Amino acid sequence: MSNIDTEHSQEFEYKAEMKQLLHLIVHSLYTHPEVFLRELISNASDALNKVRFQQLTDRNILNPDVPLRINIALDAEEQTFSITDSGVGMTKSDLIDRIGTVASSGTLEFFQRLKTENKPFDGNLIGEFGIGFYSVFMVTDKVTIQTRHADPDSIGYQWESTGEGKFTIEEIPLEERGTKIFFKLKDDAKDFSDDDRVKGVIKKYSNFADFPIYVGGEEVNTISALWHKNKNEITEEERTEFYKFISNDYNPPLGHLHLSIEGRVNFKALIFFPDTPPLNYFRVEDLRSLHLYSSRIFIQDDCKELLPEYLHFVSGVVDTEDLPLNVSREVTQSSPVMAKIKDVITGRILSLLEDWAENESEKYEKFFKNFGLLFKTGAGSDFANRDRLINLLRFESSKAEKGKFTSLKEYVDGMPEDQTEIYYLSGDNRDAVERNPSLEYFRKKDIEVLFFVDAADVFNIPHLHEYDGKPLKSIEKADIDFKPDEDSPNDTLSEDDIKSLISFFNEQLGDKVEDVVASKRLVDSAATLVVGASGMDRQMERMMKMMGGQIGESKKILEINPTHPLIKNLAQLHRSKSDEAILKSCALQLYEGALLIDGNMETPTDFVARMTDIMEQATR
After folding, report:
1. Using one digit for the tens of pLDDT, what is the confidence trace for 19-38?
2. Strand 466-467 and strand 470-474: pairing?
3. Most CB within 10 Å of its CB: which of 93, 99, 323, 505?
4. What CA dihedral angle connects 181, 187, 192 and 196, to 10 degrees?
């Protein structure tokens, strides 16, 4: 970032990425201009929270007795807007580093993709990516910030920008701490200079802000710590609006949990389950978790220590009297009080989910469809609640229609009396596992197979050795206990023929495979690759490689189907020794075809060339 000294101010140039982002913001993306007000109030509220927290331990701040509030002044005739807070204020470096740069890496790329793909822009994104201040450029062409930090030795500054690549900063005399943002509204946004319009937006987005908001001297918002009220005194509308305020979500929540705990630890909490996943759901480190209060005083806006990682998608507030008001982030990370609160909240959340699973199956299925990918990881990390979490896991299966789930308990309840194992098949997605030849026997025998198609499923397998005394087993393993098939065709190969053909296959494939055996699992397919008793199935192997695990190339067992016409034809050719060249080609082709289904073929050109050669010989 370059700067040019002038007599009265310094001029700064935005970084190239910021210029592009500003252009997208101003000209392409925003469809909810009223969101600018929500973002400015949110920023002001954050600044007030910071100074309130600082006052708990340090009275040596500028204007310590100034009321903590937000003032909005409007002039409909002049078409102007200003918002002032008595918060912590900003230093010169804050203005350069916080206002002059993009807060989140990858933000520009994400917004450009939205534009390129012509996708609608959700207003929730504005604050989520740390660029809320710049939403003002939806309604104005030039913004001015006047600010002074709470440090008694601080200096007042004025920041100005038109959002077109540059901004200026100059020193100005300011008596009081805090920040004032003001601008002239564009003609198409002049309604935001109307008192009633602005009050309506505040009640919609910011009614539960922690500090009073005044418009023209009138207090607009309802300041209420809902979590301190009796749950029966709160209306559903109040709860929903509070959720929208703390989560920046436009949709009502899927459900909530209102707690008032007294005993070994004392706290109150109001926790919400989103109806849909947030956009940053797959970046767990970016999820904004619970707000922490101490005796109604805001302490921390993203207290991850209050919940295990697999529950970080919930939002809400926790307020306890058992923590000192001057609690620091370092203290929250090691506090026994926090650990006790975490245990209680986690247990109550699991109890609510168990109730949904038992009594509101559609709601639980919706929850699991949206958040199951993260929630499943708890089974491998939260050993104190392992059994409860395992009972709450859901999987797709061969007997459930696509997109529906079954539990391990439902699976076990539906098992035939003579079935002793719980069978599963892993893969990248449902379509892939349903095409897997290993499923043919189980489909024919009407034996249910669980589909492990989420990355979290693979990580959970090592922690799911058994359920209800029944071991979990991949149907890709060679040591499956197949029952004799009374319906098998009578014209299967003789034992001598299949042994002879297997010997030939082993000779041709050599160290490509661990072994070649006659299959009991195949019904329609000629061949498949399976895993030895001590080997890893394909999905686990793939995940180990993705994690950088040092694993060698594992050899699989090739199973061939003695009842398949192709295998019978090959056995006949081998017995008559009429065309060994075609036999060799077919052995390799069957093996590589199985590799192709596995997703592990490395030489498709050889496979296609050999296939062409075989077809040429077959059509002579």
Report:
1. 666 766 665 555 568 878 98
2. antiparallel
3. 505
4. 150
